[in-house]
Amino acid sequence: MRRGMVIDLEKCIGCRSCAVACKQHNAQPAGSWWNRVVTPGSDRHLTASAPENLYFLPIHCQHCQNAPCVKVCPVGATYQTDDGTVLIDFERCIGCRYCMAACPYGVRQFNWESSKDGIKRYEYQNGYTYGYPEPFRLDNRLVYSPVRIKGIVEKCHFCAHYQARGLDPACVRACPGKARHVGDLDDPDSRVSQMIRQMNGFTLLPEKGTRPNVYYLPPKRKEV
Amino acid sequence: MGVSKKVSLTVFSLIMAAGALMWLIQLWRGLILTDMNNAYSWGLYVSALAFFVGNAAGGLVLSSMIYLFGVTALKPFARIGALCAFANVAAAMLIVLSDLGRPFRVLNLLLHPQIMSPLVWDVIVLNLYAGLSLIYLYLLMLPDLAARTGFLNKIALPVPDPAGFSDRWAKRLAPFSLVAAVSIHVVTAWIFATQGARGWWHTAVMAPDFVAAALASGTAVVMLVAVLCYGTADKFQNAFRIMAIFIATSFFIHLFLMYNDFVIHAWYGSDHAKEALAITLQEYGLAHAFEVLAPLAGVVLLLNARVRQTMSGIMAGCLLIIAGIFVHRILLMPAAFNQMPLTLAPLGSQHTLWSVPIASGRYVPPADTFVSHHSYFPTLVEIMIFAGVLSFVCALILVAVHKLPVVKEG
What we know:
heterodimer; A: alpha+beta; Alpha-Beta Plaits; three-stranded mixed β-sheet; two-stranded antiparallel ribbon; globular; B: mainly alpha; Formate dehydrogenase/DMSO reductase fold; 2 domains; two-stranded antiparallel sheet; 4 strands; 69% helix
């Protein structure tokens, strides 16, 4: 079993629902985004350098098989599970940020301050809270906690807490365009494997040799 | 202790106290007090790690030159060398503590070391080197320790012939110290050079270049302390001449390795390489000019026999070299972090290179949420913590020279 994701750029409408769902479900602190959707070529947000260029690219942890972040971590806080998911043990990370220097995809987020200070900075109305309310442990390692520890690195955990309850990740369930699919990449007959084969699935930065478990399907045409 | 030494020690202590206070505040509030963000995640602290590691080179290289290659003219400076090595490698480990988000978890390095990580290798060799330079310092001081009274006499090994024992064991340890001295630079360079994500670092030339730059700045540190302790008497002129030639040779090798890398990348002209070079040579053009011209001026000064007869001449030369290498270490970061690793040619426009911005991780209302460029400049907190550690090096050397038989009288 190798858990992977396929994102169909033909179906992506650039609504950023996945980024929002991810941020809310995972109680991400101020300024942290595990999931971002970019418009390649744009200066800002949705605009494109030329109208014929307009398409959208969601980017989060690529759950690489040859993951540089796992190899650089001096204490094994970042590790790979049996199904290839790259997780961070919140209780072991020493906050050296070596993994952030190592990651070519820029998906790792550091907690520069405490969650409380960050929320204060956001000036949310009193009592507004969001996020999966329970801490989640996998093999007794804390891989999710609604209250964040200051000074550690975090990133997409493939919604390990939902997976344990048989649910797909929040971004997959929240996608209005049905652009996201998860499945077993080791199984050649799985839906995701077939999609990659039939629709020219590609990965980001193949030249870096990271072998991501997140694949993209190219858009047939773009928004104009 | 003279008045000027007392004043210096007081100043160093005050700066150390201020640095410690800043570190406590940073512990309490978090690394938000630095100017780093998610896209630019290493700054002054990690540059300073490389700087201090480099400065630590001189000591044991000096010792091994004396005991392996028979350059006996340097013998009076051997103890100073070992002391400088220890002080700087201790500083390297201190400054990296301030870079950690959770410094109290540093014990995890012992409990769960992950042997694939170059950072673990670095922790191992830095500690080995610190231990080795302490042992070396002790061995070299042994003949004088035995002659002293009180505490120093008590810690002296009771051997029949302390001078012979010291010489014998210094010679036996010399090959190991040379290997250790080279390995701290190589392994520190590997922390960066192994990272395929960062084109600026991912070059085979980085480890040899680290060694060359370290031999220049590390020897300059020893020379600086030596001239402050011993002055410029005629009997030391030959030692200063040898050190000046060694510094000059190392610095020119460093220049060669650096520009060799630049030429190869500039010639092929990939967009990534051009971007990294533009950051260093244009955006940070002044800093680059300084990292080359300051040590060059220092080398010109030190190579002049008349300059070497003046205290101020040697000090100026050494300080220019050390400052230049410091700026070289600072320049490790901008071209690594301001060139986004994830760049792509948007589908349909294959000739553009577009950098994918990264969430800054710091919520600041007027600033962009996603950034692809950050003009990093260390905050007062970062500068004070660095100044505190630098003062620690100076104070440690000053106190040790005063209390221990580091400088031979007469």
